[in-house]
Amino acid sequence: MRLGLMQPYFFPYIGYWQLINAVDKYVIFDDVNFIKGGWINRNHLLNNGARILINVRTHGASSNQHINVIAVADDHAYCIKILKMLKNVYSRAPYFDQTYPIIERILNQEEKNLARYLEFGIRQVCDYLSINTQIILSSSIEKNNGLRGQAKVIEVVKQLGADEYINAIGGQQLYSYADFAAQGIGLKFLKTGEIEYQQFKKDFVPNLSIIDVMMFNSKEDIKIMLGNYELI
């Protein structure tokens, strides 16, 4: 059984969804420290051919706090601003009518716990893309929470009975094939292939939020993208 594990991100790029789709069980790592300046609460969209940053506003988020204790700010005006920007930027995109209601539902949710807020968004996009992987919050798993780094990941993999762990390619320096093999676990890294699609009539801007992918591509085309990777 294959397992993947990552922190929850805000409308992450296509590689995140490739990982979820590639495994049997996917663990949202919510009981680890928040990363300031990372992608947990922000991402990039397209605006006039360039990147524009959007984010989830939080109450005093700190790198000393676990993701699942951070609160989402009650800032309805900012949500309205993001939705207005989406309409301005993407209203002429071919799949705007299918995508916009999903984003609106995610942004307008009442949940104020950051981890569960992001979990809701992940599940909504998975539903739209027909990704049926079982999703689990790491805080719900009985484990030794005193462990850190690779040891904590191995503990989660063993607790869930997986024999293969798939990680995003960015984690190659964090995990050892030999250490996983010593525990009877196969280790592989997912490397996203070259993905490019038409964004209006401008030069392609890569690695944007899944929102951009959904705006410009049919569900059938995104399914093809989900399989465009190699395991190393």
What is the strand content? 15-25%
In this structure, how is the largest beta sheet organized? 6 strands, mixed
**H/E topology pattern:** EHEEEHHHEHEHEHHE
State Rg: 18 Å
Pick out the low-confidence regions: none
Shape: globular
Strand order of the largest sheet: 5-2-1-6-7-8
**How many E strands?**
8
- Total discrete domains: 1
- Alpha plus pi helix count: 8
**Termini distance?**
17 Å
- Return the average pLDDT rounded to an integer: 96
**Helical percentage:** 25-40%
Query: Helix/strand-derived class?
Result: alpha/beta
Structural overview:
This protein has helices at residues 14-22, 76-90, 96-107, 114-129, 149-159, 177-182, 210-216, 219-226, and strands spanning 2-6, 25-28, 42-47, 50-55, 134-137, 164-168, 186-192, 229-231. It is α/β, with parallel strands linked by helices and 232 residues long. It has one domain (2-231). The two termini are 17 Å apart. It has eight helices and eight strands, in the order βαβββαααβαβαβααβ. The protein is globular, with a radius of gyration of 18 Å.
Q: What does the secondary structure layout of this molecule look like, with pairings?
A:
Blueprint: E1 2-6, H1 14-22, E2 25-28, E3 42-47, E4 50-55, H2 76-90, H3 96-107, H4 114-129, E5 134-137, H5 149-159, E6 164-168, H6 177-182, E7 186-192, H7 210-216, H8 219-226, E8 229-231
Offer a concise description of the structure:
The chain has 232 residues and is an alpha/beta fold.
